[in-house]
Amino acid sequence: MSEGKVSMCEKKNDCEEEQSVADPDTRYPDGTVKLRNPHIELMDQDILYHIALGSESHDLVEMFGDVKFVCMGGTPNRMKNFAHFIMEEIGYKLPTGTDLMDISQYSYRYSMYKVGPVIAVSHGMGVPSIGILLHEMIKLMYHAKAQDPVFIRIGTCGGLGLEPGTVVISDQAVDGLGNYSYSVPILGEVVKRPAKLDKKIVRELKALSSVDDPYETVVGTTMCAEDFYEGQGRIDGAFCDYTEVDKQNYLEKLVKQGVKNIEMEATPFAALTHHAGIKAAIVCVTLLNRLKGDQ
Q1: Is 156 known to sit in a ligand binding site?
Q2: What is the pTM assigned to this prediction?
Q3: 221 known ligand binder
Q4: Residue 21: what pLDDT?
Q5: CATH superfamily of 24-148
Q6: Taking Cα atoms as reference points, which of 274, 265, 197 lies closest to residue 36?
Q7: Mean pLDDT across 14-24
């Protein structure tokens, strides 16, 4: 049942594989998403509880069949603002008298907006929250018969040796124990799924940066923590059983291992999109340099 453990000590080149050839387990010949779950096809209706949609209650092909990009970030407000930004960038015009609608407003969990071929959806905070959303967004792409959608997580993070405002494009995702994988208990056993991101998209995103940008753009490993405080080596939580020196030694060790930033969603995002055969990328902006403080 386990899909293997990938250790931080393994060579970076081992993770350089790109999803260049469609996997028949995750793609139909026309490029539409195929699920690794034979049970879904046998269901009368698949209810996507947390985004307030259903395969029979909604015409998902009509609503989402043209989707090319699924962009996700933490908060509803951030993604609403992002949807408006995308409208301006691609010149998308809403019909007169209408406004952007939160498609998932009645789920009371996530917020989702659609601007032409782009979905902007909030994923909440942390591994469980983004994991739930990813299951349902991947299923949504399947029901919508979307062809070769790309998933991008946009968010905030703590930088390691990077000034606030630095843009970090993740080329790898690692957990707090140094594993380049996402571990989840399934039926009493721990399953480890490789946390891989699409290298071609990483290169394309980096190529968009310019020396004239008022900020630096870097590429590197992102660490996904299970917790905001102790899991990230902070000393400002309600509990702390280590010293400032312990914290600094840990963070400097991460820097030596190529870790550029710390956040709380990278490993499930990378692992579940890779498992689904969906090309994906993570782009975050640093709010602070963790080597200089926690707040």
Answers
A1: yes
A2: 0.91
A3: no
A4: 56
A5: Nucleoside phosphorylase domain (3.40.50.1580)
A6: 274
A7: 57
